[in-house]
Amino acid sequence: MTIKKTREQQKQETRQNIINAAFDCLDAEKSLSSLSLREIARVAGIAPTSFYRHFKDVNDLGLTLVDEAGLMLRQLMRSARSRITVDSNAIDTSVDTLMEFITENKNIFRVLLREHTGTSAEFRSAVQREIQYFIKELSDYIMHRQQISQHLADLQSEAMVRIVFSAGAHALDTSACQQRLIAEKVKYQLMFVQLGVKQFKLKPE
Amino acid sequence: MTIKKTREQQKQETRQNIINAAFDCLDAEKSLSSLSLREIARVAGIAPTSFYRHFKDVNDLGLTLVDEAGLMLRQLMRSARSRITVDSNAIDTSVDTLMEFITENKNIFRVLLREHTGTSAEFRSAVQREIQYFIKELSDYIMHRQQISQHLADLQSEAMVRIVFSAGAHALDTSACQQRLIAEKVKYQLMFVQLGVKQFKLKPE
DNA sequence: AATTTCAGCGTACAAGTGTAAGCTTAATGT
DNA sequence: ACATTAAGCTTACACTTGTACGCTGAAATT
């Protein structure tokens, strides 16, 4: 027996189908701007014009995707931090968690990376905003854990996120074994930043 | 009196026109993959089909652009380093030089940033290669100047380049006064990395 | 002077795009 | 029970795209 669906349920389902279809389309060779409405519709299994019942245009959909991707990433890192104990290494755990996410959700991470430097100013600032949230959450954590000023924590957090995201971009295009190497390098690099800030705190200049 | 041109000269001139037209087209809202052959031809002042007399396709042209952009960047940094004296700060001079280049040649820097995470694997690895050259040259400089192992110099150089390029991406979308702020932050962040490596060298672990 | 080469052009076509207009049909409101 | 609403469909149109084909005219070669 099939379950009776309300109209609203059905609509939300289709909407989600479109979003999933878009993420599926956004592989290594497709960006949001090169993604066509008709292509998404085809994968989602609807007529091209039906797309408009859910989104104003592809831009509108794109912003939704960026928001979702950013949200997932932040939730991931929050759960990673909650797993960090007093004696486990915060850097190692965070890097490993993020790297795992990247390799298992390539397309989602790709959206953020691509649109960060993409051709739409709206997308760029949307991603920028997500990254700022990301940096802010890390900064708060660092400030509390390392007992340093907010200013220093912000600088440290930003540097770290930049290194990690850039490394993530590199990891997307390499083999699993290369990825482990990249992760190890990143851990050292983050440690340098942390050490440097600590040192700077002790004797500025 | 008009100067008589040989056929070869004329051809090279048109070729350069195409390259310049492409750089002109590659503004904030156009990437190599969203750039159409017809559009380039229009700006270059030639018929669409004439394009094929110079490049196999837009991909072919794109690789040329990436090479040129990377070359310009490396030459710039080399000349910057030659200007660094014993008492001038290497980080400050380098960051200022690069930031100046970025703001004055936005489109050229954009090509590298965009295609680094773009939709073409060929472009991505071409940019990756240019960045590796960039990192290598900086690494050699650091190794010689700071008297550290090649391994440490490589890690430091990579971290620095990642921070700088990521900051450059941010700078592309902001006002001149914001850009100065970004430059100042980057200088601190690079200093942290340098300090951290120095510290690590003294007492590993 | 005669011949070959080739950069650049115009035309043409198939394929893909966004989206406007209007229809169908089943869930919802009364 | 009937009227309304709205998700999804089909058709249609005006564009843009890459590129195949063949021509022209001037430079280069012989």
Oligomer: homodimer
| CATH topology annotation of the domain at 63-202 in chain A | Tetracycline Repressor, domain 2
Strand content of chain A: under 5%
User: Largest interface, per-chain counts?
Assistant: A-B, 43 and 43 residues
Residue stretches of chain A low in confidence (pLDDT < 50, at least 5 long) are none
Q: How many extended strands of chain A? A: 0
Mean pLDDT of chain A: 95
Nearest-angstrom radius of gyration of chain A?
Answer: 20 Å
* H/E element order of chain A: HHHHHHHH
Entry summary:
Two copies of one chain form a homodimer. Chain A is 75% helix and 0% strand. Chain A is an all-alpha fold.
Structure description:
Chain A is mainly alpha-helical and 205 residues long. Chain A has a domain at 63-202: Tetracycline Repressor, domain 2. Helices cover 75% and strands 0% of the residues of chain A. Chain A has helices at residues 7-25, 37-44, 58-82, 90-104, 106-116, 121-146, 150-172, 176-202. The radius of gyration of chain A is 20 Å and the shape is elongated. Chains A and B meet through helix 5, helix 6, helix 7 and helix 8 of A and helix 5, helix 6, helix 7 and helix 8 of B. Chain A binds a DNA duplex (30 and 30 nucleotides) through helix 1.
Topology:
2 copies of one chain form a homodimer.
Chain A: H1 7-25, H2 37-44, H3 58-82, H4 90-104, H5 106-116, H6 121-146, H7 150-172, H8 176-202
Helix pairs in contact in A: 1-2, 3-4, 3-5, 3-6, 4-5, 4-7, 4-8, 5-6, 5-7, 6-7, 7-8
The structure holds a DNA duplex (30 and 30 nucleotides).
